[in-house]
Automatic annotation (TrEMBL):
Protein family per UniProt: Belongs to the histone deacetylase family.
Domain Histone deacetylase residue range list: 25-315
Alphabetized PANTHER family for the sequence: HISTONE DEACETYLASE HDAC1, HISTONE DEACETYLASE HDAC1-RELATED
Entry's Gene Ontology molecular function annotations: histone deacetylase activity
Coiled coil regions, renumbered to chain: none
CDD domains (UniProt xref): HDAC_classII (cd09992)
GO biological process: epigenetic regulation of gene expression
Source organism, top-level taxon: Bacteria
Official protein name in the record: Histone deacetylase superfamily
Length: 321
């Protein structure tokens, strides 16, 4: 129907050229293909408009990362290194350029949202970002896509109070590093408890430091947690946002908490991702005048990744009302 909200997809075939060595590495190019296949063949196909990302500039990367890290990353790929710091962080010759393009996807998404308020934007991108620290990579992540998008939203559009809501199975340590001492930004993370899960951060008692005290909401879950436990967290998130009153919302949309994804011990279902999409739309309506940007993080079980993304996007545009 013509009045149904469209979905703006920010993606590029170039994302498949980030080489993680093949074999058993979970952060594989096939992740992009299974999402594309599902979205273009499923019930949302007629509602999707695709736009290309642009590379983040060096100045935009430096809003979170250090000059030293940019030089080290670039030098590593140009010299033919196959990973940086840890075998998890596999790279190929084009990985610096592709990571720069990945970081830029969110910037195009922000522009689309500001030009067309209420538009639903999803950045289908890799490599992911939420583990990346200012001066080093972690957990398949090289540049922190969510943080770079937040800085851009603040600087280009004066949306000072930006909140990131991250439901990837793993805590976004890099996002917390960026925001935990700031009064204007906020971070909400639903993740498997750090006692059981990488990277071992995201304790409930971590609530921010100094001017940022009270701006971090970590909601760790025990192994086996699913819809019942997650739905119980929604009122806590609303109470938190009642205090924060954000101007813009960025979602770190990870799908590795699905019960068949062996990257975590959580037990999310496809329908739970739909309900998370419903919830995000409600939050954007009630707190940010519809300004919400979703950026892909994890999700490694290829047989369900596309279905989970489709369910989340369905939840964003198809309310339960």
């Amino acid at each position: 129907m013509e009045n149904e909200p469209a979905i703006t997809l920010i993606t590029d075939p170039a994302f498949c050229r980030h080489d993680t060595g093949g074999g058993d590495h979970p952060e594989a190019p096939e992740r992009m293909q299974v999402i594309t296949d599902r979205l273009m063949q499923g019930h949302l196909a007629g509602r999707i408009r695709t736009f290309a990302p642009r590379p983040a500039t060096r100045a935009q990367l430096l809003t979170f990362h250090t000059e030293g890290w940019l030089f080290r990353f670039e030098e590593a790929v140009l010299s033919g290194r196959t990973y940086i710091d840890h075998p998890d962080n596999q790279v190929g010759y084009e990985s610096f350029d592709i990571a720069t393009l990945s970081a830029g996807a969110g910037l195009v998404g922000v522009d689309r949202i500001e030009r067309q308020p209420g538009t639903v934007v999803f950045c289908q991108t890799r490599p992911p970002g939420h583990h990346a620290e200012p001066n080093q990579p972690y957990g398949f992540c090289f540049f922190n896509n969510c943080v770079i998008a937040a800085r851009y939203w603040q600087q280009e559009y004066s949306r000072r109070r930006v909140c990131v809501f991250d439901f990837d199975a793993h805590h976004g340590n890099g996002i917390q590093t960026a925001f935990e001492q700031e009064a204007d930004t906020a971070y909400i993370s639903i993740h498997e408890h750090p006692s059981f899960s990488y990277p071992g951060t995201g304790w409930a008692e971590d609530k921010g430091v100094g001017p940022g005290k009270g701006t971090i909401l970590n909601l760790p879950l025990p192994p086996g947690a699913g819809a019942e436990q997650v739905l119980r967290l929604f009122p806590k998130i609303r109470n938190f946002l009642d205090t924060i009153r954000p101007d813009a919302l960025i979602v770190g949309a990870g799908f590795d908490a699905h019960r068949q994804d062996d990257m975590s011990g959580l037990a999310f279902t496809v329908d739970l991702y739909r309900r998370l999409g419903n919830f995000v739309t409600e939050l954007a309506r009630d707190y940010t005048q519809g300004r919400v940007l979703s950026i892909l993080e994890g999700g490694y079980f290829l047989e369900k990744l596309g279905v989970c993304v489709e369910a989340y996007l369905s939840g964003l545009v198809e309310t339960d009302e």
